[in-house]
Amino acid sequence: MGHIAIIGGTGLCDPTMLDHVTSGQMENYYGTIRYTRGTYKGKEIIFLARHGKYHSIPPHLINYRANILGLKKLGVTAILSTTAVGAINRDYKPDDFVLPDQFIDFTSHSRHGSFFDGGSNGVVHVDMTEPYCPSLRETVVQAAQELSYPLHASGTYVCTEGPRFETPAEIKMFDKLGGDIVGMTNVPEVCLAREAEMCYATISMVTNYAAGISPVPLTHAEVVEKMVQNSKRLRRLVMRAVDL
Ligand code: HPA
Predict the structure, then answer these.
(1) Which residues line ligand 1 (CB under 6 A)?
(2) How far, in Å, from the CA of 203 to the mean position of ligand 1?
(3) Where are the alpha helices (DSSP H) in 148-210?
(4) Which of 92, 104, 4 is closest to 45 using CA atoms?
(5) Ligand 1 centroid vs 71 CA: distance in angstroms?
(6) What is the pLDDT of residue 13?
(7) Where do the coiled-coil regions begin and end (predicted)?
(8) Among candidates 208, 160, 157, 204, which has minimal Cα distance to 179?
(9) 208 alpha carbon to ligand 1 midpoint, in Å?
(10) Which helix (DSSP H) or strand (DSSP E) does residue 2 occupy?
C-alpha cells in the first residue's frame, strides 16, 4: 500500500490507535497542516484530523488542497479516510459501514477543488471514472470480512456544501439521482487525491437517516454521538485495513 495516511473525520480526531506519536506541522503552497506521525505494528502512519484536533473546522472551510498537498509532500502514497454520512438509500441504516465507489458533487464551489487552476500548474482534466482507489477499497472489504463487520462494498456519496443539513426536498432529489449516502467532505478531498496521483478510499459510517427519511429533525450532536458510539469498530476496521 506504500506510505499510508489516515484522514480522520467526525468522531475520529484523535489517533489513539498509534504508538510512538509525535506531532508535526508542514507548510506548503496552500497553507499549513498539522498532523501526527506514529506507528502501528511497526509501520509508520501519518494521521490528519480533517476538522482539526478539536473539531473546529467546518466542512466548507477545510483547506483540502493544503491537506492533500501536505500529505503528498510527506511522502504519502495512499490515504484511507473516514466520513460520517446520512443514509438516503433505504437499504442503508445507522451504524452501517459503506465503502463509496462513486460520488455526486453538490458542493457550491466556494471550495477550491483543484490543484490545476492554470498558471504554472497548467490546465489538467483528471479522469474520474473510478474516483476511489479499487485496490484500497478491496483491502477494506477484506479487513471487514476478517473482522466479520457488515459493510456495503459500494455506494454513491452525495457531497453537499454544508454546514447546514439538507432539506427533505433535496434528499428526495438526491435519491432520484442515485445517491445512497450524503455527507459534506468527500469532495474535493477525493478529487485532489486523484489529481495528486494518490490512492484514496473512504470508509463512511452511517450516523442517521437523511432529512425527511428520519421523522425527527437532525442534529450535529446526534451525528457525533453515533460516531463516538461506533468509534471503536471504525478504528479497528481502519487499522486492520492499514495492516493488510
Ligand atoms: N447530511 C450531511 N452530512 C452528514 C449527515 C447528513 O445527514 N450525517 C452525517 N454527515
Answers:
(1) 84-86, 160, 165-166, 182-184, 207-208, 210, 218, 223
(2) 14
(3) 168-177, 186-195
(4) 4
(5) 26
(6) 87
(7) none
(8) 157
(9) 7
(10) none
Q: Whose CA is nearest to atom 10 of ligand 1?
A: 85
CB distance 68 to 76 below 8 Å: no
Greatest mean pLDDT range, 11-15, 120-124, 201-205:
201-205
Binding-site annotation, residues for substrate? 184, 208-210
Here the cell at position 139 is 483491502
Please tell me the distance between residue 30's alpha carbon and the centre of ligand 1 in angstroms.
27
Alpha-carbon separation of residue 47 from 58, 70, 125 (angstroms): 18, 12, 29
- Residue 126, SS3? coil
Ligand 1, atom 2, residue with closest C-alpha: 183
Phi-psi region of 17 (alpha: psi -120 to 50; beta: other; left: phi over 0): alpha
CA distance 55 to 10: 7
Work out the average pLDDT over 99-122: 92
With cell 508542514, the residue in question is: 26
Annotated binding site for phosphate: 10, 50-51, 83-84, 185
Cα gap 238→9, rounded to integer Å = 12
Of 142, 148, 204, nearest to 7 by C-alpha is: 204
- Atom in ligand 1 nearest the alpha carbon of residue 218: 7
- Can the peptide bond before residue 15 be classed as cis, meaning omega within 30 degrees of 0? no
Q: Which residue's C-alpha comes closest to atom 9 of ligand 1?
A: 85
Q: Tell me the sheet residues that pair with 104.
A: 158
Tens digit of each residue's pLDDT (9 = 90 or more) over 171-217: 999 999 999 999 999 999 999 999 999 999 999 999 999 999 988 89
